[in-house]
Amino acid sequence: MKKLENTTYEVLILSLLFGMTHVKEKEEQKLFFDPDFDATFEEAVEFMKEKLSLTKEEFYSLDAKARFRAFTVARLTGLDAIERVKEKLTKALEEGKTIKEWVEELGEDGILKMVGFHQSNPWYLETVFRTNISTAYNAGRLMQIQRSKDKIKYLEYVAIEDSRTTPICRRLDGTRLPPDDPFWATYTPPNHFNCRSTVRAIFKGSEEAKRIRKRKPKDIPPVPEGFAASPLDSWWKLTDSMAKRIVNYGLKDEVLEKAKRMCGNNFADECPEWEEIKKLLDSNSQRREVIKKLVGKGRISKVRLVDGRVVEVEKGQVIELFVHDATQKWIRSKIAEIFEDELGNRYYLTEFHLKKHLLKDNFEKLKKVGFIRERQIVSFIRKAIKRPQIIIHDTNKNAILFGRKIESKGVLLLPTAGIDSGNVETILIRRNKFQNTMRYKVLYSEVKGW
């Protein structure tokens, strides 16, 4: 594990420094691609530090962050491998196989291939490390761009055009906007796993700058979850996915101890990096405990049928649903979607709730906040359950309301997922400050004023 951590660190810091040098003079851009450039890791770092005129303090800050990122990536990757094997083994046991039969059938090589860690086809490892290298490289480019932005007319999005180019990169390719345009805060590469795109600077006064114009992309596509942030921050900070896994694997104290090293001798006085990491991990721990206390872990979504039977539900299954206390009315409806929270608990949404409560009863409200299609609502509900920013307990229905803030409107959409009763009640939109009442209890909130 230590060897993986050290290798990851060396690759990250070199990628970062390469990115910084590639925004400078043209001759320095040959460094990354020159096959005759032969140097040890230490020599390469010293060469680039000198070229970039980095002070000791500047390099120490970058180096400490690279070491922290390398530690978290290496530790999580190793534990991810174990977790993926456990998931495959659990599935085999559910199918009636014994552990001995499963191991003998696949062998060590077969198990590693199945989870993407075998040397012949390490697809999982490649995805993790390609994405981290791309993030560090683009972060280095942006750091140098920030230093020279007064001399830069445009940044241009550059995608590699081939059969592997994704729709998002193909659509953004050729975008040219000033370096301080808000677009770059969200759409600076990488924009997805295994992203190969980058940005380049077009300097004022150059021949190119005289003949080209600003170019905005049409119909800007949404960025996949976890990639809507500038590499300047994301190259070393924990993503929400990483924070969840750190808490899940019991690494919180170990990670916080490692994060102290980014602060150097300033830890006792002030260390905003450490405070930010601690806040994120504390938030994930608190949210996890709230869900675990109310729901449990790994519970399958069930529903009580009109004849009293309690059955597990799957997507596409038609169930008889109790919809009104006063009329004692039951209807038949198909399961439209199954969602899963971070602890593996499952929740369902029927076509009745989707089309009646959302698209019909709440259509005008939803339209005002940008939800006009079914898939937009379903996508939002999935995100709210997978990563809620607010959790409310409806004591009358013994149900949990997961919610997220819609930034532009300050509105919260709360899908209600019944746990014990198996009922999904409705979707609520609240515009005003939510108050604790006898019925509703706010158990967790990241939203100011809630």
DSSP strand (E) fraction? 15-25%
Shape: globular
- How many helices does DSSP assign? 15
Rg is 25 Å
Low-confidence stretches: 25-37, 418-434
Average pLDDT: 78
Describe this structure in words.
The protein has a 5-stranded antiparallel sheet with strand order 12-11-10-9-13. It has a 3-stranded antiparallel sheet with strand order 2-1-3, with helices on one face. The chain has 2 domains: 2-237, no CATH class; 302-445, no CATH class. With 450 residues, the protein is α+β, with helices and mostly antiparallel strands. It contains 15 helices and 13 strands. Strand 11 (411-418) and strand 12 form a beta hairpin. It is globular. The longest helix has 39 residues, at 56-94.
